[in-house]
Write a structure and sequence with these properties.
Layout lengths: L4 E6 L2 E6 L10 H16 L5 E6 L3 E3 L13 H24 L4 E5 L2 E3 L1 H8 L2 E5 L3 E3 L13 H9 L1 H10 L3 E2 H6 L5 E3 L4 H13 L3 H14 L4 H16 L2 H11 L18
Parallel strand pairs: 2-3, 3-5, 4-6, 5-7, 6-8, 7-10
Antiparallel strand pairs: 1-2, 8-9
Helix pairs in contact: 1-2, 2-3, 3-4, 4-5, 8-9
Length: 271
């Protein structure tokens, strides 16, 4: 297992937990390589039907591990470091976006720079009341990264995304909810339990339909309406050839609960 990342599976959920609390879970190059491998592992393991990404301690992820940057070794060494680190960052972000299973970011603490990019790449995000969100790239003299040039305008709109990047202010969990960066905020004592409950509900859902919706949403950012309609048609055809389709349709007609849930209770209101 990669140093700095814990991984386990339970109840159909793959749990990726950053465990480098002394560094606010900042990502070393080794961790980024391991994270990319874990995303691919979650993709290939059929027993995993949902993925949670979270952290330990006060940080979700502090982004780049600044201590690894070889400033004293000259410009070429710095370029070489960032070429390698960026390769893994972007492979991970792309892997999360293209993973044909739901990904939940459980933001336990500070999400900074690349850590923010991981939150934005996830399908859903639940934040502890103690979570904070900071772009931070400009603070260290680096351009925006980890897919944020695509995701931030999509979430916030052009004006607010630009303002946030320029001002580099830190958002509280409540502000992140208001800005629609997260789906909900949970009191700290209940956070772990609520994340586990939501993750199991995701794993109990129709993974193939989640995957089709996820794919269509991401394509819809760039495709023309006509092209998107064709992708939607292909998705419908693909879904009705799934073994789950006939069972779900019969149970729906008979007013029975399907073998896997079609609803997701993000706030626990149905309990």
């Amino acid at each position: 297992m990669t140093s700095g990342i814990d991984f386990e599976t339970r109840d159909g959920v793959g749990w990726i937990r950053f465990d480098r609390p002394e560094k606010l879970n900042a990502q070393s190059v080794e961790m980024l390589s391991g994270l990319t491998d874990l995303i691919y592992r979650c993709e290939s393991d059929r027993a995993i039907r949902a993925v949670v990404i979270t952290g330990t301690g006060r940080g979700f992820s502090g982004g780049f591990d600044l201590g690894e940057i070889p400033l004293d070794e000259g410009e070429e060494a710095v370029h070489r470091h960032f070429r390698r680190a960026s390769l893994y960052w972007h492979s991970t972000i792309s892997g999360i976006i293209r993973l044909r299973k739901p990904v939940l970011a459980a933001v336990n603490g500070a999400a900074v720079g690349g850590g923010l990019g991981l939150v934005l790449a996830a399908d859903l995000a639940v934040a502890s009341e103690h979570a904070t969100f900071t772009p931070a790239w400009f603070s260290i003299g680096i351009s925006i990264d980890t897919g944020s040039s695509c995701s931030l305008p999509a979430y916030l709109g052009w004006r607010r995304a630009t303002e946030w990047i320029y001002t580099n202010r830190t958002l509280s969990a409540a502000e992140a909810l208001e800005w629609r960066l997260v789906n909900r905020v949970v009191a700290a004592p209940r956070f772990d339990g609520e994340v586990a409950r939501i993750a199991v509900e995701l794993a109990d859902g129709p993974t193939h339909l989640f995957a089709l919706a996820k794919q269509l949403f991401h394509r819809g950012r760039t495709e023309s309406p006509e092209t998107q309609y064709e992708f939607e048609r292909e998705g419908v055809i693909a879904s009705v050839t799934s073994p789950e389709f006939a069972d779900r349709l019969r149970r729906f007609r008979d007013k029975e609960r399907p073998s896997r849930s079609t609803s997701l209770d993000l706030d626990g209101s149905s309990r």
